[in-house]
Each structure stands twice: as C-alpha cells, then as structure tokens.
C-alpha cells in the first residue's frame, strides 16, 4: 500500500495522509493449502490493513486492536451479525440481542456490572487446586489410551470448571456439557442447518440457567449464582437478560478454553525439546507456556467493530458505518511486539501484560483469570501425570479468520 504525504499544520513536518478504503489491498481467494496464518502474513506484507468484498476492513497490527475498540469511534457489532446471516428470530438470535457480549454503553455496563467481580483474579486463583484435581482425575482415567483430546480431556475440564463455578449437581454435567458445546456453535458464522441445531441447544441452555437461578432464589447458598442474584436485584435487567448473562459466561468459557488447551498441548508435544523442558520444570514454565499456547494459534480470530464516527486507524481513513475486524491472528504475530513471531516457544518472555487474545477495552474477556488458571494448571498436571504423552499425527491447525475458530480432532495418546 502506498501512502501519499501531505504537509501538516505549522512546523513543516510531513505526515502521510490517510489511505482511502478503496485504495487498500483487496483480499483475494487464498491459494489451496494456505493456513489462516499464511493468508494473514501474505496480506500484512502488503500493508497494515486490507479490505474484503463486503467492505469489511481487517487490521493486522497489535496496537490497532486497542484503537479499534475506542468507544469514541466504534461500537460492538451486535444483532447485525445475526441479520447478516439472515436470522431474525430464534434462541441464538435472542442470545445476541440480550447478551453483554453484543451490547454497548449503558446496556453493556448494566449487564456486565453484576458479573465483573465474580471472575476477579484472586477468586479464580483460589480454584487452582480444584482445576488441578479435576485434570488429574481426567488424565488418570485415560492413561495409556489414545483420545480425542478436545472432546475427552480439555472439553471436559472446561465444562466441569464452569459447572463448578455455577454449583451444578454432578449428575447434570454430561447433559450440560452436550448442551453447552451445541449452543456454542451458534456464536460463529455457520450454515442454516448448524444454526437451527444451535437454536435447540441455546434454548435449553437458557432454560437451564433459569432453573438454576430459580433454585438459588428458593435456596440461597454462598456461591456465584446467589451473589449474582443479589447484584441484579433492583438492576435494570429483564428476567431474560439475567438468564442470558449466565448463559454468556457458560458459553464464553467453554469452547475457547477447550480449544486453547488442546491446540496448545499438541503444539508442545510436537516439539520434544519443549515438552522435555516443561516436564523438567512445570511450575516454572506453566505461565509462559500457557501464554504461548494462547498466542500461537489463537482460538478467537478477530474482534469485530463498527465505526460510529469518521476516524483514522493504521493510516486508513475509516468512514462512519464501516465494519472492521481487528485480527488477533495479526496482532499476535506482530513483529513489532514479538521476536520471531512465527516461532512457538513456551519460554517466550515478550508477551505483553495484556494478552491480546482476550480482546481490549470495555468487552475485554471477563474469564481471563479462569482461562489462564485452567491452562496453566492443566499443562502442569499433564507434564506430571502423562510424561509419555504422544501426539498422533500432525498438530491441529485451527480454522477461521473471525469469531471463535474451529478445532479439528486432536488425537493424543496419554
Ligand atoms: C482461551 C480462553 C478465552 C479466550 C481466548 C477468550 C477471548 C475473549 C475475547 C476476545 C472477548 C472479547 C470479544 C469482543 O470484544 O468482541 C471475550 C469476552 C468474554 N469472555 Fe472470554 N475468552 C476465553 C475464556 C473465557 C472464560 C473462561 C470465560 C468465563 C468463564 C469467558 C467469558 C467471557 C465473557 C462473559 C465475555 C464478554 C465480555 C463483555 O462483553 O463485556 N471467556 N473473551
């Protein structure tokens, strides 16, 4: 991308004038065999942004992520994401309409406020012992077997930990797990058939949340849901909104953590020297190893936003009404931030304090502390309990440029 220069006011300093969207490189169909990372790297080499045939501007830089979520210039993309898929009703549509994830400004604050403190670092760190216990239980039960790791190990851990935060009865966990992963499929762009199926599971998930909340109303306990009910008392939230925030927490924490652990552990196993290093010092390396698993092949592809004002980002003039995608695939391999970004290294020490995979601004992930605690403890347990673990085949490559990405089957012998 070439940028014309125009003099700025006074001082004689020349500042490049912003590039118009029509002059950005245009995404073309990718050649056979290219991964999402190959695709983003190719376009990043042409400039800091590119545009697709729908006019959506993708930004590749780490710092652009923060500017892209600046509420002076942009807002979260909400129900439009459903409408773009031709959906105007159904349980997934209602979820988009009522969840904090897709709300803005005062509505977003009203929905997020009652949840915010429940997921704070000290509370989530207190769960580390339980996470390690659940993970040991899972790994010991499967020792010596070849498993579909995403379904049988990491998916189970993520679901069990959310079930534990919500105080679910043990007997409900298998049904709960199936409903959660079914409903999760409604959160990314999918075919009509998949969305129809996700509608059924989403309706059941929200109904399940309603039953749990009714139970805590009748029988308060010292737990997350009872506290949540106390916080929403008198708040400006409908019954449907209250249930939907519980469903959002469940959905936000399930597939993301499931995929990050499966894909990250597979990357480690495919590098024997790094696997040996983790086994030699699990406590010393678990934090940087988890951060690298989250970076290398991120489970969320991009953060969508809509411009509400004319503004400039990455040297591009963005008119109001433009849809943008701040690419996490791009941000997490920005050479201005990460040395040799294409190299997977569990000892990497250049992770920014605010890991971009959890987004930025008002919607930054509420479950970050829980997700990190789960990944770190799970990796340490794997290093201790499954030292002979082996990856069967090549490491999985996650698929998708936006939303929650897809994890192919990940076969591991424990
Ligand atoms: C690997 C793990 C995870 C990743 C990569 C991740 C990533 C993200 C990202 C990128 C966002 C912001 C989306 C946006 O701005 O449009 C987000 C929001 C959110 N996440 Fe996570 N997440 C993870 C785990 C979790 C967990 C464990 C929970 C809950 C227990 C959770 C709950 C949420 C919620 C409720 C929001 C909405 C926040 C809001 O809109 O204010 N996430 N997450």
UniProtKB/TrEMBL annotation:
Database matches in Gene3D superfamilies: Cytochrome P450
Name this polypeptide is given: Cytochrome P450
GO MF term set: heme binding; iron ion binding; monooxygenase activity; oxidoreductase activity, acting on paired donors, with incorporation or reduction of molecular oxygen
Keywords: Heme, Iron, Metal-binding, Monooxygenase, Oxidoreductase
Native organism: Albimonas pacifica
Domain of life (superkingdom): Bacteria
Homology family: Belongs to the cytochrome P450 family.
Keyword Metal-binding appears in the UniProt entry: yes
SUPFAM superfamilies xref list: Cytochrome P450 (SSF48264)
Matches recorded under InterPro entries: Cyt_P450, Cyt_P450_B, Cyt_P450_CS, Cyt_P450_sf
Pfam families in UniProt: p450
Region named Disordered: 1-22
């Amino acid at each position: 991308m070439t940028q014309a220069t125009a003099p700025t006011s006074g001082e004689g300093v020349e500042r490049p004038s912003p590039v118009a969207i029509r002059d950005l490189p245009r995404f073309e169909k990718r050649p056979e065999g290219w991964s999402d990372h190959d695709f983003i790297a190719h376009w990043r080499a042409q400039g800091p942004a590119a545009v697709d045939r729908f006019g959506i501007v993708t930004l590749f830089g780490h710092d652009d992520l923060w500017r892209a979520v600046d509420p002076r210039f942009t807002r979260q993309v909400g129900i439009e994401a459903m409408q773009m898929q031709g959906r105007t009703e159904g349980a997934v549509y209602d979820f988009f309409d009522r969840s904090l994830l897709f709300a803005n400004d005062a509505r977003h604050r009203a929905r997020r406020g009652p949840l915010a403190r429940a997921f704070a670092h000290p509370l989530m760190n207190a769960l580390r012992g339980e996470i390690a216990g659940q993970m040991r239980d899972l790994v010991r039960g499967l020792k010596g077997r070849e498993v579909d790791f995403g379904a049988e190990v990491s998916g189970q851990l993520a679901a069990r930990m959310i079930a534990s935060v919500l105080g679910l009865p043990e007997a409900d966990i298998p049904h709960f797990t199936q409903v959660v992963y079914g409903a999760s499929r409604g959160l990314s762009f999918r075919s009509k058939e998949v969305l129809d199926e996700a509608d059924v599971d989403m309706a059941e998930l929200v109904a399940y949340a309603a039953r749990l909340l009714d139970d805590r109303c009748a029988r308060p306990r010292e737990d997350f849901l009872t506290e949540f009910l106390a916080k929403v008392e008198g708040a400006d939230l409908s019954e449907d909104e209250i249930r939907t925030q519980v469903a959002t927490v469940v959905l936000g924490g399930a597939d993301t953590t499931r995929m990050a652990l499966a894909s990250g552990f597979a990357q480690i196993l495919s590098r024997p020297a790094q696997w040996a290093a983790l086994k030699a010092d699990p406590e010393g390396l678990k934090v940087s190893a988890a951060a690298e698993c989250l970076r290398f092949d991120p489970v969320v592809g991009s953060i969508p936003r809509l411009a509400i004002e004319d503004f400039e980002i990455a040297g591009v003039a963005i008119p109001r009404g433009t849809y943008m995608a701040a690419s996490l695939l791009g941000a997490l391999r920005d050479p201005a931030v990460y040395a040799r970004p294409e190299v997977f290294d569990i000892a990497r020490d250049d992770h920014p304090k605010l890991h971009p995979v959890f987004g930025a601004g008002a919607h930054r992930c509420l479950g970050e502390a829980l997700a990190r605690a789960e990944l770190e403890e799970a990796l340490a347990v794997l290093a201790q309990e499954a030292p002979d673990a082996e990856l069967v085949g090549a490491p999985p490559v996650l698929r998708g440029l936006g939303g929650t990405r897809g994890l192919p089957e990940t076969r591991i012998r424990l």
